Each structure stands twice: as structure tokens, then as C-alpha cells.
């Protein structure tokens, strides 16, 4: 977007009024840069609201269950996905602003906006990569019957909205909870959160339970 320097009327305004106009112009110039960090934080593949409704309607509805106890090691994660980059490093580079990496693809500088709570971090150590659908939730929604290769694909998928760069505190708060049990504290993210959750389950044919589906429907109604 092209920004033009504000033109003041030729009628006398006084020095204080001119300063106020100039300040407003500077604020307008600053806002696109701030917005770009936020926009960069969204992963790819979030469907439209209409598509998300269709995808949600197509998911099996059943109570969560597991054929054997969950173990995180059953989902090999942070595998190499491109060049020297593992899935975690790839998402940090993909969803940050001005990210610089070393020869091993480790982020050494940049800025990251956490969609869940609105926190902006300049240190990659403050950012964690969240599995939109937690691995334990996936296990209890159908992944317990998958092959190891399919679980590996799910845990390292960087092509859809399955992995999010968020603040460590929000990721820890979420844990393995579904949308009926936990939502991001930043309400502006709820629409994208619901659509990404639905799409993640749709891509891998995972089931939803009644409370989870009801929460997702309510979130879509607010989109």
C-alpha cells in the first residue's frame, strides 16, 4: 500500500493541531509493519468457513477411546522435512518475520507473533511449536490404529495448518485439550483456530466427540 504524507488545510490550524495530524500519519505508516508480523504467523491451508463446516460435517462423531496406552514416542516428530530443516525449524522460519537461520537451519534472529495469546517474541527460544491437534488427542481419535509412517506424517506435516508457532506459556496451557476444554485466550484467533483444528482432523480422518463438535460449531458461528 502506498502512503502519502498528510496534506494540511491552508486555513490556519496552529502548531498543536499540525503535530496531531503528523502523529496520526506516522501511526498509519507503522501499522502495516505490525500487521505483517501477525499475518506471517498463520500457517498455510486454513480453509474458508464454508469449507470448514463441510469438513466438520464429514467427520465421524464418537467418544474418544484407545486400543492401547498412548506414548509420545509413537509419533516420531521433528523429522527433517526440507534440506537441513526439521519440522520445528521449518515452522519457525515459515511463520516468523525477518527470520535468519544458521547453516543447520536453526533460527538465530527474527520476530514471531503468537496467535494464541498475542505475544510477540524476538527470541526463538521463547517460541514452541504446537500440534494443532495434540498427539494424544489424535491417538484417542483414531491414530491408535495408524501405521508408524502415517503417525510420522501427522506429527511433521508442514503443508497444512497442523503446526503453529506460539508462545511457550500458551502451548503449555493448552496441553492435550480439545476445543471443548481449552481455547486460546486471544479471542481474535478463535475462528482460525476452529478451522485449522477441523482441517487437521479432516486431512487424517480423525473423529470428534460430541462436546468437541459442539464447541467447534459454536466457534464457526462466530466467524
From TrEMBL:
Residues 126-216 form the GmrSD restriction endonucleases C-terminal domain. Residues 1-35 form the signal peptide. Keywords: Signal. Pfam families: GmrSD_C (PF07510). It comes from the Bacteria. The keyword Transcription regulation does not apply. This is GmrSD restriction endonucleases C-terminal domain-containing protein. It comes from Nocardiopsis composta.
